[in-house]
Amino acid sequence: MEQHITKVKERCRVCGRFLVEAREKKTRSSYICQEFAADLYTVFTINTSNDIVNTHPPCFCYRCKLVLDKCLLHVAQDQQQLTPFRSIVPFEWKPHTAVDCGICHPNPLRDKTSPPCGRPATHSPQKIIAGIRAIAPPTESLQDDHLLGSSNNPAILEQLQCPICLKILHQPLELPCRALVCTACLVEWFKVFNCSGVKCPCCFHDTPITAPQLKAAPLLIQTLLRDIVLQCQTCRKDIKACEYGTHQCNGESTKADLQTAFRVLRRLASHTPSQPITIPTGGTARTPTKTASARTIKRRCMQMQNIREVVSQEESSALLRRELDYLSTSDRQILLQEAGIVSVIGPGEALAIKAGLGMPWSKLRVLRSPKYMDDFLTSNRWLKASGVSISCEEKMRQIGRGLLGENLQGEVAPLSFCLSSGGEEIRGAPLVFMPDLNQKVIQMLDDNHSVGRLTWHNGIIPQTEVWVKLGGDKGGNTTKMNFQIVNVPTPNSIHNTCVFCCFAATDSVTNLHSALDRYRDQVKQLQGMKWREYTIKVFMCGDFEFLTRMYGLSGATGMKRYPLRSLECIKESHKQFMAAGGKRKKVKNYMNCVTEPIFDIPIDQVCLPGLHITQGIFVKIFDLLEDACHQLDLQLAYTYTEESSSSSSFTKYAEELHKLQVAKAKLAEAQDAMVTLEEAITYIVIAHGEDSEITKFLMQQAEDMRQSVEKMVDNSVIKKALCMTYMLTIITKHKQQEEIANTTKVTNKEFAAHDGPFVQGLDNALQSFGVHRQQYFGGTFVGNHIHKALQPSNVECLSSCMVEVAKAKCPALVASATREQTRFRRSLSLLGQCHQIYDQNYIDESQCNELETLIAHFMEDFRSSFPDSSIPVKMHMLEEHTVPWARKTHVGFGLLGEQGAESIHARFNSLQRTYHSVPDKVQQLVLMVKEHLLSVAPQNVAAIPPPTKRIKQ
User: What is the pTM of this model?
Assistant: First the structure.
């Protein structure tokens, strides 16, 4: 406080400046306020009798003394108002505060202003005009064209008209000659004379008028203006001036063009009786602005500024912004370039851009000042040509170091890897981790609180708690452990997923223990830790395989007789399993508890993998749908007769299938002919004997066939004929069987499923709403695609594609396609309704009941529609665990899901491509994690501009 009082005494009581401004002058540098208390109150309305020693200075400066003497002189001469002449605005003194005191922590821009030199400057035209406007009384504007009619006495109306604009007075001022003029008209009149040597606009007296001679209109005139009754020329209603603001009329107001009137008055003010008056109607400038002198350009700018002030009702800046909006993008860009306006990107915003784009420092350095690489010299020119400048790298690095700190280490750790020949081996692999997890969690909470991103989701999270999710997943060639702050607007976003441990190996139980055992005590300490006045509550999330490894389970128990497992139950079962010898074959007797849980997070705080549940069930149903389409393709191939030049496997399959059918028909005919021939020959030989004509004919036919068959050993005629006949039929049968066998080799292979018309129709239906299967990871779908595919319109599109293909290719299959459409549409619709409920942030009791009913209907329909299909684990989780979780927590998977851990894999893959040239793999992984941590820093996330909603064409 003593330092504050010392600094207060160094200031001027009136203007707030330092008292050393008149140090070089021969006059006094300061004056005591108590000696001029009455004058200070008269001129500046400053009452020094109420001054406080700790707040108000006791003296005022030499500059304020000059203004004080000048104003007192005007008061002594004319007794006029002082507003136009008081060029100093009194400083507002506030009590001392420890944080933002304006005296102890002054504004450097105000202190850098140099004091005026020489004699005090005369009042500028702008100040004189401002003084005129300050005198004007507040009255209603009655100058619209549709309000000129009056029901009052015309003589009174004539006395209330302005002699310049010939309309009813608005904010009238009284001239020295007692004439009344509108304030706006008088301001324009002063501008004609540049506020010096102004002649009276009514009597044109040689004595110029000055601003101090102006007065507000008498009270009687102001009363008449308030009570005057006008008649609207549009609706013919009588309107009082005081009611003008509330009058509604369909008429359109028009403004008078005062420019011609001012030109006439300007000529009248300067003409001589012997010369005619010429009135200019406008024209073009003699010199273009590009070649004009600086003085001319300044004058033109002032004229345009005055015009904007008049047209925009003293809002010239807003009008200028609107003028820029009407320019095209290219013209606006050229204008900014010619004006030399540069947009400077600050260090914080530039760091957010770098982190969001995943750009290394080397590329950012090239973008800023690429003087080291000739190939990229144009990039900086592009930024400069667009008027963009980026902050220096050192400031950005300094901010980055403050965000990251020193809480990150990298090393080569012994991790487990599976061998292709079977078994495992231990070898060194990069491992990056944060030694202090709790410090990073607290830092993220503080940073989110500082940028105002913390929320309690409308009471879903208790007001006394802060929720944190721990999760992990293996993607690419690295396993990432992360945490998420749930108390943010988008808790499952990639921008809220902070990786605290990352290693280049699989997420096996051995590797998880090697990497995460160091956090066992920290997580136990974090559970229930106090941050500010809130209690931290830790949850666990991830897919089914990850959660079983984290809790030391070999999988689901598969036995419903077991009660729901708890953390203590898992630990006790593991102890019993180890005491019994720890044999894996008997682990089912101990609830599949193979190892101890890595983190002591209660089971009721483990979030169900809602995304993987929906994903697994949808892929299961879609595989069945694709198999049904393939079976329809197999049926279509038997009747497929279209001639096509395509060489797809389905076309070839249909052709071979047609050959197979023809060969089987010929084989049947040959078998029937053989039986008939055997019976005929036997009957003829017995009935007619060996010497009959018929027997001889048969013998001759058999002899002719001898050339094409092997020579028979027995020469008996009957046996020879029978042998030849059998040989003929056997050869025919053998040829047909051989053709059938060759064709069957092709048809047994069937054809590629994607070549079938029904399967192709299913793929086209997926592509119609922007969904496709992944090339890897078992051909599954990403989470966003599943959300889209389960929408009612898209479910209808998927299930109806089979009927459309059947109508186009084979109408005989429409009935089968319709049956398939019915069962798949029902199953997908029920799954979509379940997903829509449990994917929310909050689930109330009525929604829990509805979800339970929908899940029961879905499982009943699935078992009846697909009786031969198995029930996967994720469908079991939907049936047995989803509703109990919802009833217990009333929190949906949209708030406590595992989407964030799944989303960061693509981000890390992109960073790996960026830093692939770093030879040291540990350093490479450290750089990737640092870049990721910068992108999820709340300060950088808050700097991301909100997305612009696209308008669909």
Answer: 0.59
